[in-house]
Amino acid sequence: MRKRIKWKKRFCAIAIAATMVLAAGCGGNGKESDKTDTNEEQTSKTEESSTGDKTVTMAVVGGGDTFNPFAADTNGDDYMQILIWDRPFITKIDGSIEPHLCDKYEMVDKKTMRMYINEKAMWTDGEPVTAEDFVWTAQGMTNKEIAAPRSFIMKYLEGTDDSGIETSDQSVKVEAVDDKTVDFFFKEEIDPEMFIKMFNLNFLTLPSHCFEGVAFADVNGSSFWENPIGNGPCIYKSMIQDERIEFTANKEYYMGTPDFDNFVIRITPSENFLAGLMSEEIDIVAGGSNNLPTADWALAQDQENLVCESTSGPGYYNLCINQQRDYLTPGVSQAIEMAIDKQAISDAIFAGEAEVANSWVPKDSPYYNSAVESMNQYDPEAAKKLLEDSGWDFNRELHLLGNSSPRSVPIIEMIQEDLEDIGMKINLETADTATCVSKLSGGEVDVGIMGTAGTLDPDNAAINFTVGGPFCFANINDQTWNDTVNAGAAASSFEDRKKIYDDLQVRIKEEVPYIYLYFSPEFVAYNKKLSNVDITDFFQLQYSVWEWKVEQ
Hints:
By secondary structure, this protein is α+β, with helices and mostly antiparallel strands. The chain is 31% helix and 20% strand. It has helices at residues 2-24, 34-51, 75-81, 131-142, 192-202, 273-279, 297-301, 330-339, 342-350, 380-389, 408-421, 433-441, 462-465, 479-490, 494-511, and strands at 55-60, 89-91, 97-99, 102-109, 112-117, 174-178, 181-185, 234-240, 244-249, 262-267, 284-285, 306-321, 355-356, 397-403, 425-431, 447-452, 514-527, 530-531, 549-550. A six-stranded mixed β-sheet has the order 13-17-12-16-14-15. Strands 8-9-10-1-11 form a five-stranded mixed β-sheet, covered by helices on one side. A hairpin with a 3-residue loop joins β8 and β9 (244-249). It is globular, with a radius of gyration of 24 Å.
């Protein structure tokens, strides 16, 4: 009970600290410029009131580095891009697929998918969105010189290798049928819904006419990204790096004119979210990794100006075990999992709302294998014995890496405490997201915690098992993992895919390259001036802002 009592006290301290922040007000991102930033915000609101413009401000914890979807590799980058460029479809939490940039899709034959582009879809320079834009974007996503971090979504298509990179110049087989119809050709028969759910999450169609005469080798360095042309609900206006990104509404948007004039994404520490919501400097939090902190949830629900909603999705956090460390054997890794009290993390950090994870697949998914529930379950005494039986050197320090965000630090500290309770010595390091990604993918640490937005299809795990891939944070070099996830993606029936993923879930528990911790709950709060907001889309970074209603 020692650990639970200790963390109950620590969680109370977190809540008290959050209350102190509320009393101090919302201070931007903690830099000396915060006072100026707040004054600018107040000036902006005064101007908004006097001009009659409607402005919506959404808070996120971290900013990105690029407007270029080919270069995107973090959620911060996504927030810079998702209001400018549309995804082909909207994939709902219930698994349904709704029209967006494309009206519909169909399988022409078992290996060819045809997408029909919305006839009214236009670029913000007045040019129509065409099939050639899809073709050019597909070629860019798979181009060797561009080397897009998310090229893996193209691996199902003819003319690509297992990482989604072209096998020869512009070899990816995506072809325009006419101006508003495009065909995708697959290597093998495929489950079309699986492809849509994976592809849709990461494919943002770009305006090919803006890159006429530009070699793919020069695309990433193009001046286009300084003032991009989009097809989404918002038009880029300006940015102050790591402070805010400002957009104006796309009044000609084909899905409907947004009910606001300006949209601001404001970079704000999560501990300042509630203060900003209460003072109305923030209108809505972005959800996902940008949840309202659990410590603030009860107080947020007491505020008359706020709507508070919670939901859950497939986003999860896991520990990545470096497979290049010969001392991190399957037995040692199993012991690490058995030492971690996942339910205690849910109780202390997420008010018990986080679903404990035994796999990357949520329990409600038809692909979940309940057999894993009896494997590597919490048992610290058995974990310590397994460490001893596995020959663990108790004088060795385990290098443990976690994110330095205020919400993440308590989680990684709870894990540190669990491992120390079974006799392990822990060298704990915390760092920002970019540094964590670099150190984990570079094999610089023993164990690290990472989060993913997840998808509604189990093939989202493939990126973590792609040997040599940028998201293979466990540094796997055993090609049989690749072979298994590729087989899961290629199987054309639910029954065949289910068998493959059932076996994969068991193998992960046995060899333990990853330890799945919990599925993140969404704690979203927004000002009552907003309505018609569907937060169940937020977990996939889908914001149907053109449907939101905004009171003056």
